Amino acid sequence: MDRIRLVGGNELKGEIPISGAKNAALPLMISSILTHEPLVLQNVPRLADVKQLERILENHGVDIAVHGRRRGEDEGVGQRMTFHAQDIVDTTAPYELVSKMRASFWVIGPLLAREHNARVSLPGGCAIGTRPVDFFLYGLKQLGAEIDIDEGYVVAKAPKGGLIGGHVILPKVSVGATHTIMMAATLARGTTIIENAAMEPEITNVAECLIAMGAKISGLGTHRLVIEGVSSLHGTTHEVLPDRIETGTYAMATAMAGGDVLLRGGRAEHLQAALDTLANCGVHISQEASGIRVRRNGNGIQPVDIETDPFPGFPTDLQAQFMALMTTSSGVSHIRETIFENRYMHVAELARFGADIKVEGQLATVTGVPALKGAQVMATDLRASVSLVIAGLAARGETVVNRIYHLDRGFERLEEKLGRCGAEIERLAG
Length: 430
Ligand code: UD1
Hints:
Blueprint: E1 3-7, E2 12-17, H1 22-31, E3 38-44, H2 48-60, E4 63-67, E5 79-84, E6 92-93, H3 95-98, H4 108-115, E7 117-121, H5 134-142, E8 146-150, E9 153-157, E10 167-169, H6 175-186, E11 191-195, H7 201-212, E12 216-218, E13 224-228, E14 236-239, H8 244-257, E15 259-264, H9 272-280, E16 284-288, E17 291-296, E18 306-307, H10 319-326, E19 332-336, H11 346-351, E20 356-360, E21 363-367, E22 376-378, H12 382-394, E23 398-402, H13 405-410, H14 414-419, E24 424-428
Parallel strand pairs: 2-15, 3-14, 6-7, 10-11, 18-19, 22-23
Antiparallel strand pairs: 1-23, 1-24, 3-5, 4-5, 7-9, 8-9, 11-13, 12-13, 15-17, 16-17, 19-21, 20-21
Helix pairs in contact: 1-2, 1-7, 4-6, 5-6, 6-7, 8-10, 8-12, 10-12
Bound molecules: uridine-diphosphate-N-acetylglucosamine (UD1).
Uridine-diphosphate-N-acetylglucosamine binds near residues 129, 132, 136 and 317.
């Protein structure tokens, strides 16, 4: 299994191109199930999760093509891919495929909308909490679906003639349930209202694609989405938005290591809460025409308290990275995780660097230490893994991060992007 070796202490200087957002690319790919016509996606990141979803979509009968780079395009540009679901050949998403990645469960919405039935294995993914699917099932039932659980599978059937618009009030903001119900509702008869909908930029990016495919959706960027069903959708070409979590991760890496980095393509309005937090820590942040510039020259990091929240709050997907940064702050910081109940698995690994972190329930108290020391550590989940890389960038001596397949699920060419900015980092194969 591949590992990453890094030697801390170098400042980061230069440019990091931000890839397309994994969390938008996955639901956009799934949207292709809704139409017989080809959906062309631009700026798709090269990630293990994208590959995994390709397998799942192919199993349903989606033809997938990856197009070559256009003349003049540099390697930082994401993939251009066509997804063509002319005929759905299988409405079952089997356990072997779905168990590897939670987002693959979301195919249930489009399958049910277009084929009027679906049999989808209960999901897997990062072990960061129980992550049930009750909101999805409730939402699909509100659209008239009949749902059974059979041998680990959710078996869903639409009424005769297809799903019917309905009123869905999500008990808690859920990104996945919002995507799934929104996709399903595009082809339902009548109007669907989703209240307490997630308003993450990825939801808006997907809604814009669905609108370009002929869907009627209003309320974009708010907690209330209104979807008027149409009888069919058509193909379009759509661009995946830049990854705000990758942007925030490299912003924190720069804050941790010191230096001056331009996050090319990063959009401040997609991660304002995290950038404001970094500014409060004493990091200099500026939005420039080509991206976000992050600078820390010489000054230390101030401790700041955060609480994770749905967008536009501080994202849970940046909590581990921020905790790594706080391990060397000049005081005590409190971090409260409110989205997932078990998202502190990085704490034990950060302790191996000499970090001082105490966890009580959802609250972590991080007392800054003067310096971290390099260590052998283990990647546990996707975002936790990258927090170990961030810690290693500032730690004295050598760090080896084991089990980095989690990193490859969500970070494209990580060692190359950091290496080009001066980090001493390499991938060790096998
Ligand atoms: C998505 C993101 C993930 C991010 C998370 C929260 C993708 C591919 N993944 O995950 O990176 O960390 O949003 O921003 O976009 N819940 C239920 N019942 C349900 C559904 C969710 O109780 O049926 C709970 C979850 O356990 C969690 C909370 O709702 O406590 C939010 O989860 P949700 O927003 O659904 O996360 P995902 O869509 O899985």
